[in-house]
């Protein structure tokens, strides 16, 4: 799995981040014996102001040479464009993987530990920014292998094996609080080596948006410099005490729930894959793909409603195939064909799941943030043959009795049939609208794999037939039993 990479930078922030996030590679470089098979990243923050912030960020430039494996960046300090081994290396690795026979993915790796059973099942998962990837990897009772980037390869037994190419975690800090994310919150509020960016600092104490405290100071230092409540930017907008894209960086070894295999050079056997976006009105909380090809389709049609983690307006529906759209440096058709081929050669294919933590009903979320633990445990049980499922045109969905038992076992909570119907009804019209968006996205993409269009066409036919036969926009799970 190992790929060598060299970072040259004049930024202490970049150097410190690399030290926390990546494994030292000197011994691996020696094994190259002077060879040139490594990535190179040359970065300069450029001229700095009195706060050591890049002055000429309007002239920032990032040059990516995928064929030679080199990236040059200047006049920027944003981690995504300066910490070379992060998303810049992901682009280079995607190019390399798609010219070989493996996958380089924007994915978490985690161990799922079902209550009352002495086993661990490993999953990968792709989620666009601010869609729950890190919080999924950090679900209490589970173990984290990695939260961001995974390489997937076939092993000698025909299994999909995944490795976290990082040794650290670089996460969005907004809304991390002791109720919804207790493990991360504890790590961020107790002494250890870590880096905060774009938060508020007052008397050496960090504060961020949504941290669950009601004693936020009215002045301090933040991304705007000296900050005070009511301070406005050049356009007259009030500046919040912390940025919506504030981050934290620390080593995985600092976490209580780090998986014992997180540093294993052979990685872990991946038996399931999650694809999850930010979707308020269409996808059910979890469904299982009908086949590997259907799973690739689920990843290829991933959507999210934009947040401050993505440059641009918030609340806009954005197509983000495999949560990798910003990083795919080969044609989408090549990328998706590589996924199809990768799965076809596996003797033991991972099961694939679509998740959605953000479904709303009458303006309110239909689930709490911690409910994701139930969806993950159900998927693990499906992989191991513990649960049956209901077949629908969009995939396999859970049976009510199994979710009811899981909610009771895990949270001591009564999960009602009314909640189940609200969450797992198939929104036929909304799914057809999504299919139309996917046809628009991919119609001009040359050389798309035929399997993609076969899955889309079959799903479209099935949903249209349902709508004609029932005359309804939404159908409860009982309709498919």
Task: Describe this structure as you would to a colleague.
A hairpin with a 4-residue loop joins β3 (61-65) and β4 (70-74). The two termini are 44 Å apart. The protein folds into three domains: 1-100, 3-Layer(aba) Sandwich (Phosphoenolpyruvate Carboxykinase, domain 1); 102-164 and 257-481, Alpha-Beta Complex (Phosphoenolpyruvate Carboxykinase, domain 3); 172-252, no CATH class. The protein is of the alpha+beta class and 481 residues long. The strands form nine sheets. Strands 5, 6, 7, 8, 9, 10, 18, 19 and 22 form a nine-stranded mixed sheet that branches. Strands 1-2-4-3 form a four-stranded mixed sheet, covered by helices on one side. It contains 13 helices and 28 strands. α7 (292-300) packs across α13. 43% of the residues are buried. The mean pLDDT is 94.
What's the short version?
This protein folds into three domains: 1-100, 3-Layer(aba) Sandwich (Phosphoenolpyruvate Carboxykinase, domain 1), CATH 3.40.449.10; 102-164 and 257-481, Phosphoenolpyruvate Carboxykinase, domain 3 (Alpha-Beta Complex), CATH 3.90.228; 172-252, no CATH class. Helix content is 29%, strand content 25%.
